[in-house]
Design brief:
274 residues, TIM Barrel, alpha/beta, globular, 8-stranded parallel β-barrel, single chain, 11 helices
Length: 274
């Protein structure tokens, strides 16, 4: 249940987020990868939880999202789903789980829904995957799109710099957004693109846009949970706002615990059984 003042306690669906765009209500989205964290942010009232393949970075310690497998994502998603009552849970389909054939993509999307309990899946890319998106949507599986900086393609781009600054790439992104909308996506993540371009996309499509480093005119915003809570000290892009410094707080707590164990102060008389 939501504890946020004024937040709805009704279940968020794909239709809910579409209606939020048309009513002018901003959409809040955060990542989660485990049962405990998912429960905390769900109870706080977040609208959408993304089980991102960013688990590769923040949970497994890889440099990119490329190593994540479908089995990894099914595991993380199933953990999150068990901790959620209200939020819409969207799971990333990982690299090479949907790029080979539309048939394979559909099978893998189906596994994410059936085995993990996801409410929707997210795919990166535009024109090359539009047909695949349509096939998945036609089978009854909701799809969220993702344009701009697409981390699964990092080896193709070779950089995490802002995308679509040049006119040609900006037009391609606008065209891809429309293609994906026509293919049936219910929402679109726009990552690390100029704010003016994100505003233009948001105005031109009827589905909600969710930005990360894409300015304030998107219909919603998403951040990686570990980044916004200050658990990850080594990542400080311009778009990141840290709402806590849990790295410092956890370090302090662990240091105190070690001290108390070494000194014999823990456990004390009240913390023992007799």
């Amino acid at each position: 249940m939501s504890t946020q003042k004024g937040a709805s306690t009704s279940k968020v669906t794909t239709q809910t987020v579409v209606e939020m765009k048309h009513s002018g209500e901003k959409i809040s989205m955060l990542t989660a990868y485990d049962y405990t964290m998912a429960g905390i942010i769900d109870q706080a009232g977040v609208d959408v939880i993304l089980v991102g393949d960013s688990a590769s970075n923040v949970m497994a310690g890889y440099e990119t999202t490329v190593p994540m497998t479908l089995e990894h994502m099914i595991y993380h998603t199933s953990c999150v789903v068990r901790g959620v009552d209200r939020a819409l849970v969207v799971a990333d389909l990982p690299f090479m789980s949907y790029q080979v054939t539309a048939k394979e993509a559909l099978i893998n999307a189906g596994r994410m829904m059936k085995e993990a309990g996801a409410h929707a899946v997210k795919l990166e890319g535009g024109k090359p995957i539009a047909g695949t998106v349509k096939k998945i949507v036609d089978a009854g599986i909701p799809v969220m799109g993702h344009l701009g900086l697409t981390p699964q393609s990092i080896y193709k781009f070779g950089t995490y710099k802002v995308r679509a600054k040049e006119e040609k790439e900006a037009q391609q992104l606008l065209d891809d957004a429309k293609r994906l909308e026509d293919a049936g996506i219910f929402a679109l993540v726009l990552e690390k693109i100029p704010a003016e371009l994100a505003a233009k996309v948001t105005e031109r499509v009827s589905i909600p846009t969710i930005g990360i480093g894409a300015g304030a005119d998107c219909d919603g915003q998403v951040l990686v949970l570990h980044d916004m809570l200050g658990l990850n000290k080594g990542f400080s892009p311009r778009f990141l706002r840290r709402y806590a410094d849990l790295h410092e707080e956890m370090s302090r707590a662990v240091t105190s615990y070690i001290h108390d164990v070494k000194s014999g102060d823990f456990p004390n008389e009240q913390e023992r059984y007799h």
